[in-house]
Each structure stands twice: as C-alpha cells, then as structure tokens.
Amino acid sequence: MTMPEQDTDTIRVLRGLEDSRASVRLRTALAVGATPGPHFVDKLIERCAIEPEFYVREMLTWALTRHSASMTVPELMEQIRSERAQARSQALHTLSKIGDRQAWPAITRALLSDPDDEVARSAWRAAVVLVPDGQEHELAAVLSGQFGRGERETQLSLSRALIALGEVILPFLHAATTDPDRRVRAHAIATERLLADPDAGFEFAIEEAKRVVVLGHTSQDG
Prior knowledge:
Blueprint: H1 5-17, H2 22-34, H3 41-48, H4 54-65, H5 69-79, H6 85-98, H7 109-112, H8 117-130, H9 136-144, H10 152-165, H11 170-176, H12 182-196, H13 202-215
C-alpha cells in the first residue's frame, strides 16, 4: 500500500526537525518555509517550544510566517498559555512577526509581567506590534510598571517597546523619573534620553542616568 504524499512529507519533516544535527534541523525548517503546507504547522509550533538553537528557532518562526495566519495564529495563541517558558516566548515572538491583530486579546497583563524575562521581553515586542489603535495609552501604563526590571538587555527591550509607542509614554516616563526606587528612576531617565536621542547607545544612557540619580537631578529640574 502506497503511503499518501502528505503523510510522507510529514514524516520527513518530523525526522528532520528532530535530527540531532542543528544543520539538518535548520535545512528542514527552511524547506518547510519554502513549500508550506497546513500539515506542517503543528510540528513547527511543537518544535519551537523545545528547539535549543537560536538560529534554528528563528528559521522555525520564519517557516510559520509563510503559512496562512488563519492556521497559525489560533494555535500560537493557545501556545502562549503553555507552562513551558520557551513555548510562550517563541509563540509571542512568532505572533509579533506575523503581525495579525486578531492575536491582541491573548497579550494579557500576566504575559506582559511574566516572571521569565525572555517571555516578558517577547510579550513587550509583540504588544507594541499588535496593540489596536487607541489602546496605546493603556499598554504604556502596563509597560511602565516594569521600569527597573532585570539586567541591561531586559531594560533595553522595555525602553525600545515604550519608545515604539510614541508620545503617549511621556506622562508615565516623567512620573517614573521621580519614583522612590533608584533602579526605576535610572531606567526611566535612560529611556527618556534614548527617546530624545535614538542614536545614543543604551549603555551610555543608563550610565548617565545612574549618575543623574546619584546627584539627585532629573530632566525636570532644568
């Protein structure tokens, strides 16, 4: 009995994406993206949750973006409720690349403040892409509550997400520059400086902000 072509393709992808060699997994994901089919979606999403190599995960995401959003978005929205942090993070990352605003209801406050930094960073990036017109203010309010969180990479991700929202962030930014928490103040001041001068490096901005906090001055002091 001859096996249907679709079953043969699925088995080939299954084996390729589970190969011990990252190069084979990469080539398989590339091939799936080049010739997308609905029977590949589940496996691509499943693999995103456990794939250890960053560049392979990026190719998996690309392959998913090559499929119809009507097939991928509902499943990715389910995936961001996974108990596995990588599954949540990668699903959010993929949703941000697809850019379908039907996914917005799944971007919850809990995800935007997820205890895992990588999940939270992915949620911030997805949120600024998917936020509906007119809801930027509410999103800025939630994101500004994360000032001072994490190390440099996490703080830079938050700053970039806030800056992407535009002038709606200004009231929250100004309020945070006078927060009692020195980490919050420094992060807010660094974001303020980055907003004013996007070409300034974040390292410079955060170090300058720390100096300002120590001296007790902010941009509001004149």
